[in-house]
Each structure stands twice: as C-alpha cells, then as structure tokens.
Design a protein that fits this description.
single chain, 130 residues, mainly alpha, 6 helices, binds the ligand O=C(C1CCC1)N1C[C@@H]2C[C@H]3C[C@@H](O)[C@@H](O)[C@]2(C1)O3
Length: 130
C-alpha cells in the first residue's frame, strides 16, 4: 500500500546517499566501475558475479532493493571479488585487498551507525510480504 511505497522511497534515498559517499572516497576508486573485460579477459571466468558501485546505484534506481540486507549483499560481492581475484603478495594486490577490507568495514560501520532498527524491520516485513 502507499505507506510501503513511502518506506521504499526513504530506503532508496538512504542507499543512494551511502553509495555516493563510498563512490566519492578516493580509496574506493577501483570499485566504482565494472572491471573492464577487454582489459582483463579472464576476469569473468574467475569471478562469476561481478559487482561495482555504479551498478549498485543503477539497481537502487531500478527498485531492485527492498531491504538494506540486499544492498549490503551486493557491496559484499565487490570486496569479496577483489580479495578473490587479487590474492598475490605483490604490492598492487596487497593495496587492492587493503582497500577491499576498508570498503567492507566502512560500509558495515555506516549501516551500524545510521540505519534505524525499526526502519530496517519494516523493510524486512515488506520483503517477506511480497
Ligand atoms: O579486481 C580488479 C579491480 C580492483 C578491485 C576491482 N581488477 C582486476 C585487474 C587486476 C588488477 C590490475 C589491473 O589489471 C586492473 O585491471 C584490475 C582490475 O586490478
């Protein structure tokens, strides 16, 4: 009903704000766009579910998220893919993994600090009812 659409509109505003803050953070520049398959042809063979912050922002606008949990699952794909594809000891892989861990910790801290528990429960109940 209308109250549900009001809730989902507020969810989208929150998710856009979090996504934009992450995208503006210089540490996370490598996570802002899809990995270039021309530049890295074997990437899609290794990483079955690519994800990036621009794709997440598009999914917000396509109403793909009804809960913060679904959004966080996509952010988790970003950093888990980065850890998996860049496992080596060389400095460039280590820098990517450090930034991947920062993306994980920053996202979870924002959610912990800024997501209201009651609002989250209402979103989860909308998802269960659909
Ligand atoms: O995993 C990633 C991104 C970093 C976080 C997402 N890439 C795979 C390639 C390996 C490494 C060096 C470049 O070849 C560059 O193309 C990539 C992009 O970084």
């Amino acid at each position: 009903e209308e109250q549900e659409e009001d809730t989902l509109r507020e969810l989208r505003l929150f998710l856009r704000n979090v996504t934009e803050r992450l995208s503006q953070d210089k540490r996370f520049k490598a996570f802002t766009k899809p990995v270039d398959i021309e530049e890295v042809p074997d990437y899609i063979k290794v990483i079955r579910h690519p994800m990036d912050l621009s794709t997440i922002l598009s999914k917000v606008d396509l109403h793909k998220y009804v809960t913060v949990r679904e959004f966080v699952n996509d952010v988790d794909l970003i950093w888990k893919n980065a850890l998996e594809y860049n496992p080596d000891s060389d400095p460039s892989d280590r820098q990517i993994r450090h930034r991947a861990c920062a993306l994980k910790d920053t996202t979870h801290a924002i959610i912990r600090d800024e997501l209201d528990e009651d609002f989250n429960r209402i979103c989860e109940q909308i998802r269960e009812a659909r």
